[in-house]
Amino acid sequence: MQGERYGVTEDGQTVEAYMMANDAGMRVQILTLGCIIARLEVPDRDGNQANVVLGRDSVDGYMHRSPHFGAIAGRYANRIARGRFAIDGTAYQLAINAPPNAMHGGPHGFHKVVWNAEEPGGESLVLRYLSLDGEEGFPGNLDVKVTYSLTATNELRIDYAATTDKPTVVNLTNHSYFNLAGEGAGDVLGHVVAIDADYFTPADATQIPTGEFRTVAGTPFDFTHPMPIGARIREPDAQLTAALGYDHNWVLRAPGAEKIRRAARALEPKSGRVLEVLTDAPGLQFYTGNNLTGALVGPSGRAYRQSDGLCFETQRFPDAPNQAGFPSAVLRPGERFATTTIFRFDTNAK
């Protein structure tokens, strides 16, 4: 597998694109900029191929006008309240990019850096980045490795690993926006979704978790049985109103098991495409593209409007560095951060 020149950043760094493919008809294009999944092509039930991730068509588009399309979010994915946290009595202040909070590692997080491609071979790609001590306000030199692997059975596996020389916080995820009908095909409100979680973490008006673990039973957040996204997204629920839709963390079952299990499933009925998400992470941020306004145009030439894509962001919990009741997101010297997520594609019968 050889990288091809995709473009150049404003400071002169070359961005490469790597294409992985299998015999089952799945193709995935990965950029060294932000570890971005730029294209992900899978067949429908009749064998017709389509790209099922939203994106841009240039380096400039990804650098300046992209809500993290397809990128790795870090050093801390999701939100940290007021960009502040403390480790062992030492306080840290992060860049504020989602006022009044820090989000997805800051304005110059992992999504905007060019990663080093290593060991490209077969249908696997290793990307590395050294995040320096103090970058975006985070402590410690963090050595990060992300490995993308495409299997013969239409699974895209993402293995994350990181080590540090100073106590820090880490939360890494992939921020792909999926539309199983095809990129630019319209909204995803007809996608039928199931989430393997009995609780979610409600948020305040700034999208910071309150610390409560709230049951999904009897609420629009109950996806324990398959449900179209649009069935309840417009209900007058305070959580949905504040976020303009779904943008919340679900507490996945058996979060301490440290084993890969199913987290979510999505079906697009017309095409028959199915996406299953498997992970060993404790949480899942389900986001329905609430802030897409029509201002961004994808490779298809179509504008992206609200709910034109959905995200399944496997993760540590939002604001975990400030919430004692959440699983810890602290990484110390001598420890290794490691987590795995698998996007498994299939089709169902009519």
Helix and strand layout, with pairings?
Elements: E1 4-8, E2 14-21, E3 27-31, E4 37-43, E5 49-51, H1 59-64, E6 72-73, E7 79-80, E8 84-87, E9 90-93, E10 102-103, E11 116-121, E12 124-131, E13 142-150, E14 155-164, E15 168-169, E16 173-174, E17 192-195, E18 197-201, E19 214-215, E20 227-228, H2 238-243, E21 247-252, E22 261-267, E23 273-279, E24 283-287, E25 296-297, E26 303-304, E27 311-315, E28 330-331, E29 337-347
Antiparallel strand pairs: 1-2, 2-3, 3-4, 4-5, 6-16, 7-10, 8-9, 11-12, 12-13, 13-14, 14-29, 15-28, 17-20, 17-22, 18-19, 18-21, 21-24, 22-23, 23-29, 24-27, 25-26
Please give a quick description of this structure.
The chain is mostly beta strands and 350 residues long. It is built from two helices and 29 strands. A hairpin with a 2-residue loop joins strand 11 (116-121) and strand 12.
Total helical elements:
2
The number of distinct β-strands equals 29
Low-confidence stretches: none
- The strand line-up of the biggest sheet is 11-12-13-14-29-23-22-17-20
User: Roughly what fraction of the amino acids lie in strands?
Assistant: 35-45%
Shape: globular
Alpha-beta content class: mainly beta
**Integer-rounded radius of gyration:** 19 Å
**Helicity level, as a percent range?**
under 10%
| Biggest sheet layout | 9 strands, antiparallel
User: How far is the N terminus from the C terminus?
Assistant: 36 Å
Give the overall average pLDDT: 96
Structural notes for this entry:
The protein is mainly beta. The strands form eight sheets. A nine-stranded antiparallel beta sheet has the order 11-12-13-14-29-23-22-17-20, with no helix packed on it. Strands 1-2-3-4-5 form a five-stranded antiparallel beta sheet, with no helix packed on it. A five-stranded antiparallel beta sheet has the order 19-18-21-24-27, with no helix packed on it. β11 (116-121) and β12 (124-131) form a beta hairpin. The chain has helices at residues 59-64, 238-243; strands at residues 4-8, 14-21, 27-31, 37-43, 49-51, 72-73, 79-80, 84-87, 90-93, 102-103, 116-121, 124-131, 142-150, 155-164, 168-169, 173-174, 192-195, 197-201, 214-215, 227-228, 247-252, 261-267, 273-279, 283-287, 296-297, 303-304, 311-315, 330-331, 337-347.
